[in-house]
Design goal:
Blueprint: E1 2-7, H1 15-27, E2 30-35, E3 51-55, H2 58-71, H3 75-87, H4 92-121, E4 125-130, H5 135-146, E5 151-156, H6 174-180, E6 183-186, H7 189-198, E7 210-212, E8 233-238, H8 247-254, E9 262-267, H9 273-284, E10 290-294, H10 300-309, E11 314-317, H11 326-333, E12 338-341, E13 356-357, H12 363-375, H13 378-396, H14 398-409
Parallel strand pairs: 1-2, 1-4, 2-3, 4-5, 5-6, 6-7, 8-9, 8-11, 9-10, 11-12, 12-13
Helix pairs in contact: 1-14, 2-4, 4-5, 5-6, 8-9, 8-12
C-alpha cells in the first residue's frame, strides 16, 4: 500500500492543497493530512474517501511546549545558533522566532512520527510531504533522519524563501532541511534563483534536489464566456484589497481614461475595501465613460463562475510583490489576456513582454498601456486570448501537473 503523509501548519487547508489532495488521492491508497487545529475548518471540502485530516490535539501541543527547552539542544539547532551569531547580529526576536519554529515543528513531528513508524513496521511505501519550506519541512526532515527509508519532499513557495519577505532565510534550519529532504519543489524558476542567491555561503546544498514544479490552477468550467459586448471594454482585477496589491493604482489610472466606455470589476475584499470604495467614488463616481463594481470577498468557485459568465477584455495585476500568482493563471485559463507587473515569477506565466509592466508602474504609464491594448483590432485581441489559454493548457493546468507529479512521487525510490 502506498501512503502519503502531508504536513501543514495553517489555520485552514489552503486552496492549492485541496487541489493537491484531490489528485494525490488518485495515486495513493491512503492520504493523511496532518495540521494544527483548524480555526477555519474547511476539511468538509475534501470528498475523497481515502483522505483523512488529523488535527493536532491540545494535549499534544502541551507536550511540545514542555519539550521546547530540550529542543534547543538538538545538534542542528546548536549549529544554527552558532552560525547566526557568527554571521550576523542576532536580535532578541531571533530567539522568539527559533522557539516558535521549534514548537510548531514539534507539534507536527509528534503527530506524524507514530504514523510513519507504524507504516514502516508494516512495510508500507510511505512519502512524507511538507506543504511549505517552513516548519512542516523541518518536521519532514526530522522524520527522514529517524526513518531514512521514508521518502521526504517539500514544496517551496515565496514567503519562506524570499529575503524580501522573510528576515530569516538561511537561519530557519535551511542547512538541515536541504541535507535531509530528498527533493524540494519550488513553485517557479525565479524562486529557485532567489533562494540560491539569498542562502548564506556556509550552507552547502545539492542542486539536484532543487526542482521546479508549477502548482498551476484548476479550470472548473468549459466552454467559456459569452460573446463580447461591443458597447464596452471590461477590465478585471482579482486580489485581496491589501497594501501589496496596490488596487489604488487601477483607480487612479482609470480616472485618466478619456476613451470609450470601460467597465472595471474587482473580485475580492480585504482590509482596505472601504478606503478603496471611497477613493473610487471620489475619482470615478462622476465619470461618464467609466463604471466600476466591487464584488467583495468571493469563494474561489464564484470567481470561476464570473469568468465563465462574463466576457473580460483585459485582466490586470499591479501587485508590488508576487510568487507565481494563481489569480493570473486562473484568468488565463479562461482565455483572458493578462497585463501584470514584472515581479516575482510573473513573467513565467505572462510570457509576452509587451504585457509585462514595470514594478514602479504609474497611472500615467498604465493608462497608455491599457489604451494600446484597447486600440488593437479585435482579431489581435482574440489572438492574445487564444495564446494565453494555450500557455495555461501547456504549462499551468493543475490537473495535468498534479497527476504527473503524484504518479512519480508514488514510485519506489
Amino acid at each position: 500500500m502506498k501512503v502519503l503523509v502531508t504536513l501543514n501548519y495553517q489555520r485552514e487547508i489552503p486552496p492549492f492543497m485541496l487541489t493537491e489532495l484531490h489528485y494525490a488521492a488518485k495515486e495513493f491508497d491512503r492520504v493523511v493530512y496532518i495540521t494544527r487545529e483548524l480555526e477555519n475548518d474547511n476539511s468538509f471540502l475534501i470528498q475523497e474517501k481515502n483522505v483523512s485530516v488529523q488535527e493536532i490535539k491540545k494535549t499534544d501541543r502541551l507536550i511540545s511546549l514542555l519539550k521546547l527547552p530540550f529542543l534547543f539542544l538538538r545538534k542542528e539547532i546548536r549549529h544554527e545558533v552558532m552560525q547566526a551569531v557568527r554571521h550576523r547580529s542576532v536580535p532578541p526576536k531571533y530567539v522568539y522566532h527559533l522557539g516558535k519554529e521549534l514548537y510548531c515543528t514539534q507539534n507536527l513531528y509528534h503527530a506524524a512520527e507514530p504514523i510513519v513508524k507504524s507504516l514502516i513496521e508494516q512495510k508500507e511505501d510511505i512519502v512524507v510531504q511538507a506543504t511549505w519550506f517552513d516548519v512542516s519541512a523541518y518536521a519532514a526532515s526530522r522524520i527522514k533522519e529517524k526513518y531514512p527509508q521514508a521518502k521526504t519532499v517539500s514544496f517551496a513557495h515565496s514567503f519562506e524563501i524570499d529575503p524580501a519577505k522573510s528576515f530569516y532565510i538561511g537561519f530557519a534550519c535551511d542547512d538541515y532541511k536541504l541535507q535531509k529532504l530528498d527533493r524540494v519543489y519550488f513553485i517557479a524558476k525565479e524562486m529557485v534563483a532567489i533562494y540560491k542567491e539569498a542562502l548564506p555561503k556556509w550552507i552547502n546544498y545539492d542542486t539536484d534536489k532543487m526542482k521546479v514544479r508549477y502548482l498551476g490552477s484548476v479550470r472548473y468550467y468549459w466552454p467559456i464566456a459569452p460573446e463580447k459586448d461591443r458597447k464596452s471594454f471590461t477590465i478585471c482585477t482579482c486580489s485581496g484589497m491589501t497594501k501589496v496589491k496596490r488596487v489604488q493604482i487601477v483607480i487612479r489610472t482609470l480616472a485618466l481614461w478619456q476613451g470609450n466606455k470601460i467597465h472595471w470589476v474587482h473580485l475580492g475584499g480585504g482590509p482596505l475595501m472601504e478606503q478603496l470604495r471611497q477613493l473610487a467614488e471620489e475619482k470615478l463616481g462622476k465619470k461618464q465613460n467609466v463604471t466600476y463594481e466591487f464584488t467583495g470577498k468571493l469563494e474561489n468557485i464564484e470567481v470561476h463562475k464570473f469568468y465563465r459568465d462574463h466576457y473580460i477584455d483585459l485582466f490586470l495585476n499591479v501587485s508590488e510583490s508576487e510568487g507565481l500568482p494563481v489569480s493570473i493563471m486562473e484568468a488565463m485559463s479562461y482565455g483572458i489576456p493578462t497585463m501584470a507587473t514584472d515581479v516575482g515569477a510573473t513573467r513565467e506565466v505572462v510570457q509576452k513582454k509587451e504585457m509585462l509592466l514595470p514594478k514602479d508602474i504609474t497611472p500615467e504609464k498604465l493608462i497608455r498601456r491599457i489604451g494600446w491594448f484597447h486600440a488593437l483590432p479585435q482579431s489581435e485581441q482574440l489572438a492574445y486570448r487564444n495564446e494565453c489559454r494555450a500557455v495555461w493548457e501547456k504549462q499551468f493546468d493543475a490537473a495535468k501537473i498534479a497527476t504527473k507529479y503524484y504518479k512519480e512521487l508514488g514510485r519506489a525510490k
